[in-house]
Amino acid sequence: MNESHKDGILGPRLKPCGPVRDAEAAGRIHERLVEAADEGGWRATLDGAWGALEPVFAASPYLAGLARRWPERLRQILETAPDTRLAEILAATDAIDGPADEARAPLRHLKAELHLLTALSDLGGVWDLDAVTGALSRFADAAAQAALRCVAYDQRRRGKLISAADDPRGPVPGLFVLAMGKGGAFELNYSSDIDLSLFFEPEALESALGEGVEPQSFVNRLAQGLASLLSERTADGYVFRVDLRLRPDPSSTPPVVAAPMALAYYESVGQNWERAAFIKARVCAGDAEEGAAFLKALVPYIWRRSLDYQAVLDIQSIKKQIHVHKTGEGLEAAGANLKLGRGGIREIEFYVQTQQLILGGRDKGLRSSRTLEALDALTERGHVTPEARDELAAAYHELRALEHRVQMLADEQSHVLPVDPERRADVAALAGEGELVLFDAGVESLLMGVNHRYGELFEGGEELSSPYGSLVFTGVENDPGTLETLKRMGFSEPATVSDTIRSWHHGRIPATRTARGRELFTRLAPQLLTAVARTGAPDAAFRRFAVFFSGLSAGVQVQALFLNQPKLFDLVVGVMAFAPRLARALGRQPQALDGVLDARFMTALGTDTGVADQVVREAREAGDFESAMNAVRRLHREQAFRIGMHIITGRTTAEQAGLTNTSLADACMQGLAPPALAEAERMGGAFEGAVAVLALGKAGSREMTAGSDLDLMTVYAAPPEAVSAGKGWSADLFYGRFTQRFIAALSAHTAEGGLYEVDMRLRPTGSKGPVSVRLEALEAYYAEEAETWEFMALTRGRLVWASDAAFGARVEATLEAALRRPRPGVDVARDVRAMRDLMDRERRPKGFWDLKLSAGAQVDAEFVAQYRQLCAAAAGEPLTVSTLEALKDDAVLAETWRTHQQLGQLMACAFDGRGDPDAEPAGFQQRLAEAAGASDFETLKAQLVELRLRARNAFEAALPSGLDGGRDGN
Predict the structure, then answer these.
(1) 437/810 Cα distance (integer angstroms)
(2) Sequence-ordered list of residues with C-beta below 8 angstroms from that of 107, at least 6 positions apart, any chain
């Protein structure tokens, strides 16, 4: 403030702020004021000040309206020294007491006069920034104190509050109000809301309440009354918008929080941005003694003497989340957010506060609540260069002045320079510039300088913003710039995503419940959202990641893994977008991700990593049946996720995926069959005999997908009269119990999840006969009763496990002999074709993406492959369970099978049931196309149509309809 005019009246000291934007508008207000001045005898005062008033009222409808409505207040302002008038306004506010309803109009009239006084003193060059913000902040304190007195008066009159009105502890003993944010630092802007945090000390409050008054309900009503008194709009306007959300976890706590509970919250789950908020906190109303004790108790929380590296990273991340463009590219005056945008006030404030949090624990001289005072202190101690300090301080003054002028137009809490050139020119005029081009250039240069300096100050380290823009999740409300960034990322509901991220920051899920978990998440959040955006399906990817992330029992290890392996993290997020099956599996069993920690995770499928041996070994070492089941499930879960990741990301072929899926299933069966046999022996006693497990279907041909079940058969051999040593069970009962326990071991869901669905219907007599088959009965069945379709199924029969190696060899020989045994009079080709025609009638394909049953797709190819094997068996040629090997002379059918299997592997990983690629995101469609060697999704569909036509023709050639003898099983 200019000291030479400190005691002078305001009018003569005012200087024109800039050009007159609208002479007609100024003329109209002048006429009204002249009329009032002539009546009141202060025309000379008006004429003397009009040169400075005219540009103000021409540009600001709000200020012109105040002067028009209350010309006498304008006179008092002009004819009094500004500091004196401010003191009178504050004294009048301090004198307000009595019923809240009677205080509404006086408070609003005083606020209007304060606004007019402050604006004229600011625009007229009489008050500097400190004087302006100090006046606004001191009035906010006085208004909050008056509001508390009045609502307490009402409660006292109702008998709810019994303490004396002049109690030295304040209107409500035990209750105190903290001014937070800019108000706490005496830095309120012109049309700012006020951040108030209300707390109460239970013991002190209870002694002041009437009998039967519940403290929490009482203070809640009190807070609502205080906020309403200040913020409700009436014909006289409003006093201040009140924000009560700067309290512990505002979405789940009452508006007034008990001090002990608040202290417990801040000490356990308080975030670093909340520590930053308390740098500016001070008691502005209520019980000053209890408030001071509360803030003193928070000192160790706010000002930590020692910080570990991760805490420092988290504090730095508060500012690094802001997207820094060192070149200043894209910074424009039109629409620039002077507070939250790039190069804005927040960049300066965050820089100062984050350095205070890191350094202020050991240096009390850095604990100032005032932004520029703290910046000076940082400079004095060598943490900031004088050049950086001077540039940032000058920019801070200019940006705050511009912010005030934006708000003076219409008393709106806006920080954005108008896009409309006419309105922006009004701001320019209040800022002293008549040429909009020059004004815009100056603003852009100012923002560019701050942004550039900000980028230099925090170079190095990981980026905590995103290529899409700023991602800031501090505070209690959604950051506008962040919502714009999320919108650019493709989210349909940016606010919901922002709310979810902020709730995770608050520690509402196990993964972020610890300080370490929250610090890691601060660094992970921007990487997560960027990765999600890149999937092309951000809504689905984020929703599925949220299920997974919320399900983690602890998050430190997983988050650290993701941060250390960003490529792997991108892969996992991609799975969330394109593979709901895998995403759900992770959500149900997040422990599947543990396998990622295994060095073998990214090893190419087909490489012997020792997993199969590990499954068998851990099942053997488990100790009991249930422990063996859980051990196998843990390993299966990790490996199934690993295989799925390789398939989804295109790192393997359909054939290799089938082999690896099947090898995993084999390992599970080989690991669980011995415990199942031991369990049967435990229940029935030892048994003299042998048993084997056969795989058929996709498991038999080693072509399993993620969704395949297990087609199995168990076969045994035992002496005719053998019984178990304990309960005397016969062979069929004993091995039936083994089979039941084996099926349960594979299909039951335990705490570690499930493994496979098991289908035993391909055994002789299907679902009607015994579950386990004596080898001699099996041999007789295929010699005397089996039909051609059963021999087709047997072409994919394969031994997986046997309790005795010699018996296993005997079973394999029996299977081959059954296939090769002559079947005089049987027309195999006609039977196979008839079976396919029957299937076509009874099991029609379910749409274009039925990869099995569509004409020219997998079933056509598999029927021909099985037919070829039956022919090879009859001719004494080598046999194979592989579909592709069986189709070595049927190129088109091999091509269609391989293509559909490739797509089937991918879709089985992606979907639990039958998916519809046409309804999936473009990214998944492209992945399908790439899997089949097509350039894009539409090309894929066209190629499938053409391939299926060729394959169906090949099928017709191999198995013509209306076959008439000549192709028998001899």
Answers:
(1) 94
(2) 93, 96, 143, 146, 147, 229, 230, 239
Kindly state the tokens that stand for 108. Answer: 């609003």
Taking the C-alpha atoms of residue 830 and residue 864, their distance in angstroms, rounded to an integer, is 12
Amino acid 317: pLDDT:
61
pLDDT tops 70 at residue 457: no
Of 140, 123, 122, 139, nearest to 131 by C-alpha is: 122
Closest CA to 669 of 644, 692, 643: 692
Looking only at the bridges linking them, the beta strands covering 256-258 and 282-286 are unpaired
Give me the half-sphere count of Cα atoms (radius 13 Å) on the Cβ side of residue 549. 29
User: Average pLDDT for residues 894-905, to the nearest whole number?
Assistant: 96
In 887-963, where does DSSP find H-type helix? 891-910, 922-931, 937-958
Share of the chain above pLDDT 90, in %: 70
Contacts of 583 (CB under 8 A, 6+ apart): 544, 545, 547, 548, 575, 576
**Position 671 confidence tier, pLDDT thresholds 50, 70, 90:** very high
Instruction: Report H helices in 70-198.
Output: 71-78, 82-94, 100-123, 129-157, 181-184
Q: What is the pLDDT of residue 402?
A: 97
Half-sphere exposure of 917 (CA within 13 A, CB side): 23
**pLDDT score recorded for residue 327:** 38
* Mean pLDDT within 252-273: 90
Tracing tokens 């190696």 back to the chain, one arrives at: 805
With helix as H, strand as E and coil as C, how does 304-351 read?
Answer: CCCCCHHHHHHHHHHHHCCCCCCCCCCCCCCCCECCCCCCCHHHHHHH
As beta bridge partners, residue 209 has 161
* pLDDT at 60 > cutoff 70: yes
Q: What is the mean pLDDT of residues 341-370?
A: 88
Whether residue 445 contacts residue 332, with contact meaning beta carbons closer than 8 Å, is answered with no
Q: Measure the CA–CA gap between 267 and 662, rounded to whole angstroms.
A: 52
For every residue of 683-750, DSSP letters joined together read: HH---S-EEEEEEEHHHHTT---TT--EEEEEEEE--TT-B-TTT--BHHHHHHHHHHHHHHHHH--B
Compute, in degrees rounded to 10, the torsion defined by CA atoms 326, 332, 336, 340. Answer: -10
Strands 710-717 and 690-696: what pairing?
A: antiparallel
What stretches of 797-890 show up as alpha helix (H) in DSSP?
805-820, 828-842, 858-874, 883-886
Predicted confidence (pLDDT) per residue in 743-767, tens digit: 999 999 988 888 999 999 988 877 7
Q: How confident is the model at residue 707 (pLDDT cuts 50, 70, 90)?
A: confident
Cβ(881)–Cβ(799) below 8 Å = no
Q: Which residues lie below 8 Å from residue 551, measured CB to CB, with a gap of 6+?
A: 586, 587, 588, 590
Q: Tokens 């990487």 sit at which residue?
A: 527
End-to-end CA distance of the chain: 113
| CA 642 from centre of chain | 23
One-letter amino acid at 27 equals G
Return d(Cα 89, Cα 41) in angstroms, integer: 23
Burial label for 41, CB within 10 Å (0-12, 13-18, 19+), is exposed
284 touches 251 (CB < 8 A): no
Which pair of tokens denotes residue 616?
A: 């068998």
Q: Are 186 and 133 in contact (CB under 8 A)?
A: yes
- pLDDT at position 86 is 98
Q: What is the DSSP string of 39-54?
A: HHT-HHHHHHHHHHHH
Question: Which residue, 665, 767, 663, is CA-closest to 709?
Answer: 665
Band of the pLDDT at 324, cuts 50, 70, 90?
very low
Torsion-angle region of residue 684: left (phi > 0), alpha (psi -120 to 50) or beta? alpha
**How confident is the model over 203-233, as pLDDT tens digits?**
999 999 999 999 999 999 999 999 999 999 9
Name residue 827's beta-bridge partners.
968
